[in-house]
């Protein structure tokens, strides 16, 4: 084969060096050209890239290269999400500093990405652990603080004992830390929060603008934001002036409320049980619950636990005294931290009531079990029905009763109509070293105040002992903690918490617009030109965390007057996972495939082509070595076409014009391939079908025979081969560049050659074959011109001997035509 392993290495090294020295992919703002910003979620620098990286970045690269060839000014940057706990863990394990370990990983990943031939503008490469980047994290934080969007409060938080840091609710998976999988506990700490709830209405409403996002992702965000219409009900505490406020969306069930449950953290719990016989048991339960993560407490398959606090509440609609419990399945983060329990119509309440032998009352009748008694219920009835045991509302469909009872309760002053949000403010404090220092100072005289902007960045000290124990390592660095108050000059101390790494990734896409600007987080004019991101690509696992936070930051920047748009990402693609043996590739499963090994044997272009051909981008991709071999063979085949069949020397004055059916067929297949490959890009990024269309064109080229030297036919053949190479260029850029040069096209890199255009007229055939049915059975075939008038088509069909045996003009009841495909005659 002319395209050997040595050829691969030489060709890829040659063109990667060419792109680098020629600055092929470096871009600047250019108002004369349409822009296109394609971005993949930037990687954590773990050192070597894996197949998940390869797939994500190859998808982005083929889009970027296609848009370049379509005449767009394409921004395609790369950087590293470089802060975080893993660097500290690696530092402890390898007895090095987090900075040294991270920068070594970045250097290695940089080289690995270059080997793949990705079309990055390397001049914009950034790392979030660089002080020139996190300086602007601190600037953003201070701007949020000035607007009341960054604040500190004491609260119960998720705490990972292994990482010795707090976690946001979203970072707790099945009761464990998302990083190290250690069981998470609850701990009371003073923490920094960002007031993302300020933007809850616009975060929800603007989801309607994201028409090019997967509906699944929009639904996940909508559910997380969680806007609920309901009523806030006031339950008076018997023998007390205290009132328990309960928010519910199910006012239709209020007459069935038989007890109240408070979150163990609720402020009234200790107040109502102080100096009572129940106080000890309540405090013990609070401590026990503190060792459970919030996600575990919310889990539907966990046993619901709780204790009676010895007090009673009064149901305002019937003056019934009902017991007050605390339960682990109620959280302060949702609603008011208190619920009215209706066990007959809520599965969690039903389970809790059964365990504690609490009273139950049916208030929605099951149409299929009229007259059902509580004693016979095996589960809560959560479907629709008419109200019973509900006073004047008896017989009302419960769907209608939600609004009617809520309005009645408001009129009676039992409660008030209310809107609640599931979204809670974002906890960003982390008790670790390797993150952005929170730029706040504490002075005994002046109180808490931000670091002056001109003193930014507050840099991480270099000589820090990292043990992974005992909270923030920064707290033990005296020359970092001790500082002068910027207001009065007296001795003060710095904040020692660092920011959650999601802060870094919530605006990096804007920094890429002017990556090394020293005067601002980003240049307003650059952002106005490049943003929003036209195509964003990343995993579905970031559907809530990263994407929601990025939308929040975008809305904040708009309020600052720095940008004019509402949403950061116009189109979103969530690529599927790479599997082997039906399971996601991972080191723990021992089923990984090292990209370096594939590159050494097959080269980057083969790997890229296989990744794109094996499955649509959104689907899971099952690793298949045979697929690699197939991609390798196809690239060899095209290479040999150029090497053996392309001849530029004999066609200088020839005119490429179809003169016979074989010429027309080749031209038709060439134009068809251009049209279909273009549609594969523009109508859903169907890269696997695009490659299939290229293979069809390759087959047509193979079938086209010239015979003796014929300049006109050779020129047609040359044009078909050129088209195939151009269509292939975004997918296999190195060998495409090489073949373009082999054909004598030395005036430009193929990356900037215009995408081929197709001629619609050339797609039409002179004749088509149509099957002719008589009473449902095929009786003949006719060769006719496309779109032939029906009268003429009828005459030709009836003249066919096979059809004429079964049909005459006079006997025809129906003459049905499927245009250019089928004629169905009913006699």
Strand content: 15-25%
**Total strands:** 34
Largest sheet: 7 strands, mixed
Structural class: alpha+beta
Contiguous uncertain segments of 5+ residues = none
Estimate the global geometry from the Cα principal axes. globular
Proportion in helices: 25-40%
User: Compute the gyration radius: what is it?
Assistant: 34 Å
Q: How far do the termini sit from each other? A: 60 Å
Q: What is the tally of helical segments?
A: 26
Rounded mean pLDDT score? 91
Tell me what you see in this structure.
With 827 residues, the protein is α+β, with helices and mostly antiparallel strands. The strands form 10 sheets. Strands 10, 11, 12, 13, 14, 15 and 18 form a 7-stranded mixed sheet that branches. The chain has a 4-stranded parallel sheet with strand order 2-1-26-27, covered by helices on one side. A 4-stranded antiparallel sheet has the order 6-5-9-19. Helix 19 (604-614) packs across helix 20. The two termini are 60 Å apart.
Question: What features would you highlight for this structure?
Answer:
alpha+beta; seven-stranded mixed beta sheet; 34 strands
Short description:
Helix content is 36%, strand content 19%.
List the helices and strands and how they pair.
Blueprint: H1 5-21, E1 35-40, H2 51-69, E2 73-75, E3 79-80, H3 85-94, H4 98-115, E4 126-127, H5 131-146, E5 150-160, E6 165-167, E7 172-173, E8 176-177, E9 185-194, H6 200-205, H7 215-225, E10 227-237, E11 243-248, E12 259-262, H8 267-273, H9 279-290, H10 294-298, E13 306-315, E14 320-327, E15 338-341, H11 347-356, E16 364-365, E17 386-387, H12 398-411, E18 415-421, E19 426-427, E20 429-430, E21 440-443, E22 447-450, H13 478-481, E23 482-484, E24 491-494, E25 498-499, H14 502-505, H15 508-511, H16 524-530, E26 533-538, H17 545-560, E27 569-574, E28 578-580, E29 583-584, H18 595-602, H19 604-614, E30 621-622, H20 625-645, H21 661-682, H22 687-703, H23 711-728, H24 733-742, E31 768-774, E32 777-784, H25 790-799, H26 801-804, E33 814-818, E34 822-826
Parallel strand pairs: 1-2, 1-26, 3-4, 12-14, 26-27, 28-30, 31-34
Antiparallel strand pairs: 5-6, 5-9, 7-8, 9-19, 10-11, 10-13, 10-18, 12-15, 13-14, 16-17, 20-25, 21-22, 21-24, 23-24, 28-29, 31-32, 33-34
């Amino acid at each position: 084969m002319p395209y050997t392993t040595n050829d691969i290495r030489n060709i890829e090294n040659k063109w990667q060096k060419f792109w680098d020295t020629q600055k092929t992919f470096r871009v600047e703002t250019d108002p004369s050209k349409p822009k296109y910003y394609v971005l993949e979620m930037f990687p954590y620098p773990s050192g070597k890239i894996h197949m998940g990286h390869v797939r994500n970045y190859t998808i982005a690269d083929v889009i970027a290269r296609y848009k370049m060839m379509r005449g767009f000014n394409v921004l395609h940057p790369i950087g590293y999400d470089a802060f975080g706990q893993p660097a500290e863990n690696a530092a402890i394990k390898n007895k090095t500093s987090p900075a040294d370990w991270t920068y070594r990983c970045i250097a290695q990943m940089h080289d690995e990405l270059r080997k793949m031939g990705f079309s990055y503008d390397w001049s914009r490469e950034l790392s979030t652990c660089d002080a020139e980047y996190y300086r602007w994290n601190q600037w953003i934080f201070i701007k949020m603080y000035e607007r009341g969007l960054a604040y500190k409060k004491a609260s119960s938080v998720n705490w990972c004992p292994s990482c010795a840091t707090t976690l946001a609710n979203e970072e707790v998976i099945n009761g464990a830390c998302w990083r190290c999988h250690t069981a998470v506990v609850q701990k009371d700490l003073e923490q920094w929060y960002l007031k993302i709830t300020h933007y809850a209405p616009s975060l929800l409403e603007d989801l309607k603008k994201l028409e090019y996002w997967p509906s699944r992702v929009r639904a996940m965000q909508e559910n997380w934001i969680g806007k609920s219409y309901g009523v806030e009900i006031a339950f008076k505490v018997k023998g007390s002036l205290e009132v328990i406020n309960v928010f519910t969306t199910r006012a239709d069930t209020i007459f069935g409320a038989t007890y109240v449950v408070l979150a163990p953290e609720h402020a009234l719990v200790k107040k109502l049980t102080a100096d009572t016989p129940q106080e000890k048991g309540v405090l013990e339960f609070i401590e026990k619950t503190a060792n459970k993560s919030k996600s575990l407490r919310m889990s539907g398959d966990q046993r619901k636990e709780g204790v009676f606090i010895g007090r009673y509440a009064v149901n305002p609609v019937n003056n019934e005294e009902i017991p007050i419990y605390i339960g682990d399945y109620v959280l302060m983060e949702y609603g008011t931290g208190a619920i009215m329990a209706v066990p007959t119509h809520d599965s969690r309440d039903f389970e809790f009531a059964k365990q504690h032998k609490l009273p139950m009352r049916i208030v929605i009748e099951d149409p299929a079990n009229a007259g059902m008694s509580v004693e016979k219920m095996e589960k809560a009835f959560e479907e629709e029905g008419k109200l019973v045991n509900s006073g004047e509302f008896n017989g009302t469909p419960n769907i209608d009763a939600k609004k009617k009872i809520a309005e009645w309760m408001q009129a009676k002053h039992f409660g008030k109509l209310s809107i609640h949000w599931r979204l809670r403010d974002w906890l960003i404090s982390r008790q670790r070293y390797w993150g952005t220092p929170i730029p706040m100072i504490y002075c005994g005289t002046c109180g808490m105040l931000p670091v002056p902007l001109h003193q930014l960045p507050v840099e991480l000290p270099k000589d820090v002992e990292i043990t992974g124990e005992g909270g923030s390592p920064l707290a033990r660095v005296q020359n970092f903690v001790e500082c002068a108050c910027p207001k009065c000059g007296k001795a003060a101390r710095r904040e020692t918490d660092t920011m959650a790494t999601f802060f870094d990734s919530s605006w990096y896409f804007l920094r890429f617009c002017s990556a090394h600007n020293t005067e601002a987080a980003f240049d307003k004019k650059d952002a106005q030109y490049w943003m929003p991101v036209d195509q964003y690509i990343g995993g579905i696992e970031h559907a809530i965390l990263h994407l929601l936070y990025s939308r929040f930051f975008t809305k904040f920047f708009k309020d600052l007057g720095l940008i004019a748009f509402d949403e950061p990402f116009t189109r979103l693609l969530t690529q599927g996972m790479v599997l082997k043996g039906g399971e996601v590739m991972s080191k723990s499963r021992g089923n990984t495939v090292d990209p370096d090994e594939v590159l050494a044997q097959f080269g980057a272009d083969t790997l890229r082509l296989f990744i794109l051909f094996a499955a649509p981008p959104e689907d899971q991709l099952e690793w298949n070595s045979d697929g690699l071999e197939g991609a390798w063979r196809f690239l060899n085949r095209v290479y040999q076409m150029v090497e053996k069949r392309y001849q530029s020397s004999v066609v200088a004055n020839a005119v490429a014009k179809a003169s016979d059916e074989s010429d027309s067929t080749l031209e038709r297949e060439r134009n068809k391939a251009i049209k279909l490959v273009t549609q594969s890009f523009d109508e859903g990024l169907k890269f696997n079908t695009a490659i299939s269309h290229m293979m069809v064109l390759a087959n047509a080229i193979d079938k086209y025979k010239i015979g003796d030297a014929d300049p006109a036919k050779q020129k047609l053949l040359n044009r078909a081969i050129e088209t195939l190479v151009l269509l292939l260029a975004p997918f296999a850029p190195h060998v495409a560049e090489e073949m373009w040069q082999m054909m004598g096209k030395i005036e430009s890199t193929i990356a900037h050659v215009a995408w081929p255009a197709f001629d619609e007229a050339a797609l039409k055939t002179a004749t088509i074959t149509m099957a002719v049915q008589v009473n449902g059975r095929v009786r003949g075939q006719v060769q006719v011109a496309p779109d032939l008038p029906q009268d003429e088509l009828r005459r030709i069909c009836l003249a066919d001997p096979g059809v004429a045996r079964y049909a005459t003009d006079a006997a025809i009841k129906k003459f049905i035509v499927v245009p250019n495909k089928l004629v169905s005659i009913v006699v």
